[in-house]
Structure formats: structure tokens, C-alpha cells
Amino acid sequence: MDYQVKLEVFEGPFDLLLTLISRQKLDICDIPIAKITEEYLAYLQKMRDLDLEVASEFLLVAATLLEIKAQSLLPVEEEEWEEEISLGESREALIARLLEYKKFKNAAIELAARLEAESKFYPREADLEERFAKLLPDFLKEVNPAEFAALIVSLMARGEKVLIESEHISSMPIGVDEKMDFVMKRLKKNGSQSFRELTTKCKEKIEAAAIFLALLELYKMGLISLSQAVVFGEIEVRLSA
Amino acid sequence: MLELASLKGIIEALLFVANESLSLRKISEIVAVDEATAKKVIDELAAEYRGGNRGFQLREVAGGYRLFTHPGYASYVEKLVLSSDYRRVTQAALETLAIIAYKQPITKAEIGRIRGVNVDTVVNSLLEKELIKEVGRQNSPGQPILYGTSKAFLEALGLRSLDDLPPLKEFAPDERTRRRIERRLTSGPVESEE
Amino acid sequence: MLELASLKGIIEALLFVANESLSLRKISEIVAVDEATAKKVIDELAAEYRGGNRGFQLREVAGGYRLFTHPGYASYVEKLVLSSDYRRVTQAALETLAIIAYKQPITKAEIGRIRGVNVDTVVNSLLEKELIKEVGRQNSPGQPILYGTSKAFLEALGLRSLDDLPPLKEFAPDERTRRRIERRLTSGPVESEE
């Protein structure tokens, strides 16, 4: 990977940067991830043909960097932190990781070939002939409106589970649900709010994080729109039209 | 020019996958032969099926040709159709209809997001049964079709109007779920179709 | 006892009507013959199709038997059945699918750790395509969902069962790649320092 990084504290190949950090020759806190990402994107744009090999390897290395960085930001117990760092990606671990990833990439090529070959076989998917379709029970006959309502309630609850119970969200001690209600109430009252306004009363960082997750959730549901004029600028939140 | 043998194979493949009767014109267009040749091959196929104790027959219906199961084996096919696997069709139809009833007007994509699966076939079969109908287009990229329930739907459920549908609140297991459902139902048409 | 000739017709009719693969057990139940006899008839049908330039083939996929159009006629079939890109899968989705296929049951977090990126969107799109499904919950904090491949996955790949997947070992990167990766990560001034 011949992608080079230019930072105040480091200049050279990107994966060497990772090696240095994992060996604690460089402090992760001195590495501005945003800057690296920005440079990398510019670099990718310069390349006429996007080399996927380079791109996906970069992603893995970058993800490892981010993981280390994220770990460094989390308020962990002192000893635990030490352990994390030593556990952190040593060179060997990273090599193993890249090799493991490569293995699945190769498997993916095989799957693609099989999918391609298989796409030439068309199964018969025609609807049932009328004489047989008539045999199927009239599904509405057995249903009364109340059962109908109960059915959709269970469906909706099912759908929500998928949204809420991703690992990251369910471990939150503060309910994202609650915060979603809070945000919706504020927006209905005030029209629009900035993220800052929504979080002024937060006593802890984790509460602001819950509000942030609530915003993502509401956005996904199509209930709000989000805008940010400049990077690191105010995030404006408003109800969807 | 294709050999007659492979012509037979090709036309058989077409009849096999088709979900409706195929006109002679359509067949000859796809295979790129004249209609007379196509007709000859079709007649041969039909004769072969008749003579060979096959499980299906080739019949001319509604201005075209279509494969049907051999009526002599209908009792076995009925057993298959009534066996459990086809119940899934029923469940899918019910769920989809419930979503459309409570969230109309709604696009296929949005129904799919709630049910977590592709709903093309199910929506089409509900349209065919006239339980739902197209009610307009969503003003978003691709202008997807919006669906709503029909008069036949109300009749089938014995409702005077949509207002007679039971409010969902009553069925929510707890307060949290109730609020969630309310939120999702009042969201109206979603604007971004991911 | 049914004659062999009509047995063939009956089983062909069943395969013709079914819109999923039929297991040997199901077929023999419906036709009321023992599995060995059913298997014999199925093998005969398959051989007949192969030898007779037919438009379709009988294949064993996903733990059962199903009729498919002959792949040699795919270009004609495509003209009739609008080739949907339902099956088209992105590179990211393929890699994720490979990980799930070989490491199931597996959580999103574990997949993400192998691919190095968040896999939420990709996993959802695979769920939507029904190539994977939820198979349970991991007994760990947050009880994350475990994913596995579906029957549709086997069908889409033409596999009889997961055992038909080539062993993962076969895909281990070759020596050259291995050395290249090692070299890259050990180059630079760091090496000499230790």
C-alpha cells in the first residue's frame, strides 16, 4: 500500500503509522484521525481507477487505528487501559487479521462465481393455477378486526427490536426511547433546535450520546431532518415536512 | 438458424417459466424465428406431452400457450398445495394487508422495511384480489406507487369505514411500545427511501 | 400400487407446481410410496431431462428437488423474465455473506471485526434479500443477534447443503500474499530498533 500520510508527527506509509502506534512509538492522541481520513479521500479521488485491493486494506488498517483511538478516548480504568493497549493490535495480530480478511475475500470471489453460474438457472415461480389457488383458505375469513390490529402491533414491535437492539444501543444505561420522546416534544414546541440546545441540560456525556443516538433513530424513521453547514458546526434538527 | 431440437428446448424453457400464457408472436419474437416454425415446434411439444405420460400439458388459452399440470394428477397437487408450506403465503398476505390498512398510503419499499422482506409478490396478489389498490404516487425519487385498501377490504372485514379499524393503542403490550407505534404510524409517507 | 409411468407423471406434476424445492420425504408422503421408489423415479426424470434436450433440468438444491430452466437457454429466458437484479450483490455484501456462511452463527460485531468496518447496512441488505436470517441470540452482554444463512442462500448458490461449501482452508491467501503483507508491515525504521 503506497499511500503516504503527512502529519506533524509522522510522515510515511500509512500502515507503518499503525505499526508505530501499536508499538507505542507514537502516541495515538497526537494523530488526528479526521485529517488522515481527509487526506486519504483526496488521495483516492486522485487515483483514476480505484484499486479495491488498496481501498479495502486501507479500511482495515484505518479501522484498527480508529479502534485504538476510540479506546484511548474511553474513560476506562487505569489497569484495564494498560491491558487494552498491550492487547491492542501488535504487528502479528494485524498480520493475522489481514490474512484472515483475505481468506474471506477469496471465499467471496468463489461465492460470486457460483451466484453467477446459478443465475443462469431459472426456477419455475409461476403463481398457482386458479383451480389450486382456490383451495387455499380465504385468509380474511378467519380474521376479525381485533386480530388484525394485534397482528400489526406485534409486527411493529418486531421491527423496532431490530432497530434498537444493536449491541451499541442496548448497553446504554439511558433510554434512547426516552430521548426520542424528549427530542420530538422539543421540536414540536420550538420548531427547530440545534444539537447544542438539545444537550445543554445534560449532566453527563453519556446523556448527550443518548440524545445523539435518538436523533439518528428519528432520522432513520424519517421523522426529522438534520443539517450541518460546516464540519464541526452546529447540527440543526427539525421536524420532517 | 437454430436446430429444431434446441428450438424445442428453448420454447419449452419459455413456457416453463412464464407466469401467463405466451402468444405465438411473443414466442417467435424472443426466439427469433417465424411464427410458422414456432407453431410447428409448439405442436410437437404438445403431442410429446400427450403421448409421454407427462405431469403437465400444453394448452392453448386466451390467445396463447401455457403449461398446466395434468388434470389426472390434480388430487396429488391438491395435497401438496394444502400442505403446510403454502400457509406462509397466507401469513405474508395478512401482515402486508395489516400494514397497508394502518399506514396507507404507503409504498412497497416502506412495507418491505417493516416486514423485513421483499413484498412484490404479496402486494401483487393483494392487488389481484382487489383488497388493495393504487392510490397515487409518492413525491420522491422514482415516484413510487402508493397503495391503500379498497372497498372490498372493508367488506371482507365487516367494517363500515377505515375509522372502524380498532385503535392500535389498545393492543400494545406496554406504554413504551404504544408510544413507539404511535410515532411510527403518524410519520406519514417517509421521504427518504434509503 | 401405482404404475411407474404414472408415478413419474405425478412427481413431475408436483415438481412443476412447487415454488420451492421439495424434499424426498415430502414427495414420497404425498405420492404415498417409499422414499427409495420416489428417489428412483426422480433420478429417472433427471436423466430423461438431461438426455432429451429439454428446456428444463431437475436439480437437487437446498435439501430437495426443484425444476430449473436449462442454463444453456438463459439468454432467451432472460428476454421473457425481466432479469431482476434481486440477486445482484455488491462486493461488500459478498464478503459479509462469505463470513456469515463460514462462521455462522455470528454477530454483526464479529463480522465487523473481520471486515474492519461497520456492517449494519450490508447485513440489513442481506436480510432483505433473504440470503441470511436471524438464528438466535448470543449469550453475552446486550444479547446480540446471531446470523446464519438461509435456505434461499443455498438455492441462490445451487448448494444441496452447507456441507457443499468448499472448505475455507482452500481460500487461505497464497504464500506470496502472505509474505507481501508481512513485509509491508515490518518495513521501515522500526524493525532495526528492536
Structural overview:
The complex is a heterotrimer, with 1 copy of chain A (241 residues) and 2 copies of chain B (194 residues). Chain A is flat, with a radius of gyration of 25 Å. Chain A has 11 helices and 5 strands; from the N terminus they run ββαααααααααβααββ. In chain A, the strands form 2 sheets. A 3-stranded antiparallel β-sheet of chain A has the order 3-5-4. Chain A has a two-stranded antiparallel ribbon with strand order 1-2. Chain A is mainly α. Residues 78-88 and 159-172 of chain A have low confidence and may be disordered. Chain B is mainly alpha-helical and 194 residues long. Chain B has 2 domains: 4-73, Winged helix-like DNA-binding domain superfamily/Winged helix DNA-binding domain (Arc Repressor Mutant, subunit A), CATH 1.10.10.10; 91-185, Orthogonal Bundle (Arc Repressor Mutant, subunit A), CATH 1.10.10. In chain B, 52% of the residues lie in helices and 12% in strands. Chain B contains 9 helices and 4 strands; from the N terminus they run H-H-H-E-E-H-H-H-H-E-E-H-H. Chain B has a two-stranded antiparallel sheet. In chain B, strands 3-4 form a two-stranded antiparallel ribbon. In chain B, strand 1 and strand 2 form a beta hairpin. The longest helix of chain B is centred in the first third of the chain and has 17 residues, at 35-51. Chain B starts with a helix and ends in an 8-residue tail after the last helix. The interface between A and C is large, with 57 and 59 residues.
